[in-house]
TrEMBL record:
SUPFAM superfamilies: Nucleotide cyclase. PROSITE patterns: GGDEF. It comes from the Bacteria. Residues 84-205 form the GGDEF domain. This is GGDEF domain-containing protein.
Length: 205
């Protein structure tokens, strides 16, 4: 990485990646070099913002709301630019507070849920805990509308064992751009969908 200074080029002053390529003649002899610069100001600013935020949920190590917001905003920009769809799932642990009180705030249940959620999605997806008993999964790129439903079904199945702890699971889904244009809109739709589906999902867990 280098920095383009005003003294070198009065019009520009920005951090950049420098690449140098050799230009050869017909005899494969080097005639000259060509330098190219890529402005990385936005990337550095983005990384600086991330470093300044508290990004992780303490008990589970999952992303927290701050990191989820950053990644969702980045995914939305990419989705808009390239005409892609993305998905968001809202997962709520019904009855968690009562069970948690019995176990004196033991984090083992939360860790178990976190492990199951992470194992149910792709490495490129984001799993976040945003409240005491609410988790969100961001799917930054989905193949079609059914993709989100398939992931929801996979997650519901992976959390079946919670039924032995008297904890139910309700899941709602949302898709960009049909269900929302930003993170608040997607979360709101997923939460509403979760309440609509709650009886069915609880009966299947």
């Amino acid at each position: 990485m280098c920095c383009i200074k005003e003294s070198a080029c009065p019009t520009f002053n920005f951090p950049a990646f420098l690449t140098i390529s050799a230009v050869h003649d017909g005899d494969e002899q080097i005639m000259n070099d060509v330098a190219g610069f890529t402005n990385i100001s936005d990337q550095l600013q983005y990384e600086k913002r991330l470093s300044q935020l508290e990004l992780r949920d303490g008990p589970t190590g999952l992303a927290n709301r701050n990191l989820l917001t950053e990644r969702t905003n980045q995914a939305l920009l990419q989705a808009e630019r390239y005409g892609r769809s993305l998905g968001m799932l809202c997962i709520c642990l019904d009855g968690f507070n009562e069970v948690n009180n019995i176990h004196a705030g033991d984090d083992e249940l939360l860790k178990l849920v976190a492990q199951q959620l992470v194992a149910s999605v792709r490495a490129t997806d984001t799993v976040a805990r945003i409240t005491a008993n609410e988790f969100v999964v961001l799917l930054p790129e989905i193949e079609d509308a059914d993709h989100v439903l398939l992931v929801a079904a996979k997650i519901a199945k992976s959390l079946d064992e919670l039924s032995t702890l008297n904890v139910g699971t309700s899941i709602g889904v949302a898709r960009y751009p049909t269900d929302g244009q930003d993170m608040p809109g997607l979360l709101r739709h997923a939460d509403e969908d979760r309440f609509r589906n709650k009886p069915r999902l609880l009966s299947s867990v």
